[in-house]
Amino acid sequence: xxxxxxxxxxxxxxxxxxxxxxxxxxxxxxxxxxxxxxxxxxxxxxxxxxxxxxxxxxxxxxxxxxxxxxxxxxxxxxxxxxxxxxxxxxxxxxxxxxxxxxxxxxxxxxxxxxxxxxxxxxxxxxxxxxxxxxxxxxxxxxxxxxxxxxxxxxxxxxxxxxxxxxxxxxxxxxxxxxxxxxxxxxxxxxxxxxxxxxxxxxxxxxxxxxxxxxxxxxxxxxxxxxxxxxxxxxxxxxxxxxxxxxxxxxxxxxxxxxxxxxxxxxxxxxxxxxxxxxxxxxxxxxxxxxxxxxxxxxxxxxxxxxxxxxxxxxxxxxxxxxxxxxxxxxxxxxxxxxxxxxxxxxxxxxxxxxxxxxxxxxxxxxxxxxxxxxxxxxxxxxxxxxxxxxxxxxxxxxxxxxxxxxxxxxxxxxxxxxxxxxxxxxxxxxxxxxxxxxxxxxxxxxxxxxxxxxxxxxxxxxxxxxxxxxxxxxxxxxxxxxxxxxxxxxxxxxxxxxxxxxxxxxxxxxxxxxxxxxxxxxxxxxxxxxxxx
Length: 533
Known about the structure:
Radius of gyration: 23 Å
Number of domains: 2
Helix content: 25-40%
Number of strands: 20
C-alpha cells in the first residue's frame, strides 16, 4: 500500500521524517503531509492509493483523536472489523483500513493484533503520552526497520533511507509477528499458527473452499487486478481462483518461447482462454547482467535466491504498472507450506515427522528475508501491491494441520510434494491442465530461462569470469562477517555495499540459510535435479 517513516523522541523529527519519505517515493503515488505533534515526534507517508484513496490520508486518527497510525499493507477483514466497531458505537470518518486499525487499537488495545487478517507494518502513536506500538504481520510480508538511540526511535519501510539520513546506529528489523513498544519487543498472538491436537487428512473440497475465499478477499473491489503467472502449480491455481471472480484478470509470464515454463503457461491459456501477457526476458543478454546493481539496490539484499528472481519480478511489476495495475496476486507461500522444495520433500518423505515440521518452520521463518522481501521491494519499486493468498491464515492453519503423510507421494520413483495442491486440479479438469498438475518443481530462475539447470548455469559462469580466484579470496576476507560462499554472492555484496553501509545492518550477517544437510541427502537431491530437466 505504501511506505512510511516515523520518528519518536528524535531531534528535528519533522526534518528527519521528510528526508526519509523522500527515500521511499517509489512506494506510492502521493505524499501525505508530515504530521508533527511535537518537535521530537513526526509521522510521514508515501501512499499508494488503493483502499479509499481519496480519504485515506495518513496518519489516520482514532475516533477520539488520541491514537495516530502510520500503516503499510492491507487488512483484508477491515470491513468486518469496521462493522463490529460500529455496532459498539464507534463512528468512522473514512473507509480506510488504516482508520480501522487505529480504532481497533483504541478499543481493544494490544489484543487487536490477534484480530487483524492481512499483511501489514505500522506504528501507532499515543499523542497524549508519547508512547507507541509498532507491529509487523506474522510472516513479515511488509517490512519495518528501526534505528534506536538511548531515548528515541526512527522507523522506516526500507533500510537505505535510514542509513542515508541517520549517521550513526545500526538498522534493526522488527521480526515478523512481533510488536515493539518503548519497553518491550514481544511476539503477539495472531490468527496464524494455532496447533491442532490431532493432524487431519487432506480434503480437496475443503481446501478448495479455503483458497477460493483467500483469493476473493484479496481482490480489490474497485480496481483491476493481475496475476504473476509462471505456469507452475501455484500461480495457475491463483489465476484459476481469481478468474472465478474476475474473468478478465490477465497473467504476466516472464521469459521467452524457449523458457522451460512457457509450454505450461501456454497449456493453461489455450485450455481456458486466459489473457496471457508475455514479458520478454533474455537471460543471456548483457543488458540483463547489467541490471544486477539496480536489483541489489532495490532488494536491499545480496542473497542469490533473492537477487536472481528479482530480475524477473521487477520486469513483471514494471509491465503491470505500465498497463495500469496497482494490485497483483502471486503464489508465494505455497512451496513453503505444502512442501514444494526438494529439502522439504525429502524431509517429509524420509524423516521423522517432528524433524520435517521443524524444517518447514525454518523455511517459513525465512520467508521475510528472501521471497517476501523480493516481492515487496520489486513490486513497490513500480507502485504495485502484491498480495499472497497462500499466506491467508485459513490456508496456513489448514496446511499446518495436515498429517505429514498428506504432502508427499512417490511419483516416477521420486518423493513428490504439494500433493494437496495437485489434488485440486482433479476438481476442475476442464480448467486446470493435468500437464501442470503433474509437472516437477523447477526453480523460478530456471523456468524463466535464467539457467538451463543447476549443473549448467550460464549465469554462474558470468561471475567466474568477473571475479578471479585471488579476488574471491580477498573479497571473502574483506567481508568476513558476511560468510560469503560463492563468487556470485561476493558480486552482489559488493554492489550492495556501494548502495548502503552494510556494516550497520546486523541481520545481513545472519545468512538466510536452513539447517538441511545437502551433503547427507546429496544423491537424492541430484535425482531431483535430473528429474526436472
